[in-house]
Design a protein that fits this description.
With 85 residues, the protein is of the alpha+beta class. It has one domain (5-71). Helices cover 26% and strands 21% of the residues. The chain contains 2 helices and 4 strands, in the order βαββαβ. A 4-stranded mixed sheet has the order 1-4-3-2, covered by helices on one side. The termini are far apart.
C-alpha cells in the first residue's frame, strides 16, 4: 500500500507543539532525525490536537494525505500560518 505524505516546514507549527506536545503525545508521531517529525493525519474530530497541528492536518486531508512530514528545511506553506521560534 502506498499512502501520500505532505511535506511541511516545522515553522508551520508552534514551538510548544514541536517541543512539548510532540514529545509527550500518544498520537502516532515519529521523530525524523534531529529536526522533524512524521505525523499521522488524525480524524477531524480529535479534540486533543493543538490548533496549529489541527490546521495542518485539515490541509493534509484536503489533499488526501495520510501523513505529514514536518522538516525544518522544508519551505513554510503560504497557505498556512507560520511561526517564528
Amino acid at each position: 500500500m502506498i499512502e501520500p505524505m505532505l511535506v511541511l516546514s516545522t515553522g508551520n507549527l508552534t514551538f510548544e507543539t514541536c517541543n512539548v506536545w510532540m514529545k509527550q503525545t500518544d498520537h502516532a508521531v515519529f521523530e525524523k532525525a534531529d529536526y522533524g517529525w512524521f505525523v499521522y493525519v488524525a480524524e477531524p474530530d480529535d479534540d486533543e490536537l493543538p490548533a496549529d497541528l489541527s490546521t495542518c492536518m485539515a490541509f493534509a486531508r484536503r489533499r488526501r494525505c495520510m501523513w505529514i512530514m514536518f522538516d525544518r528545511d522544508a519551505p513554510a506553506s503560504d497557505e498556512l500560518p507560520s511561526y517564528e521560534w
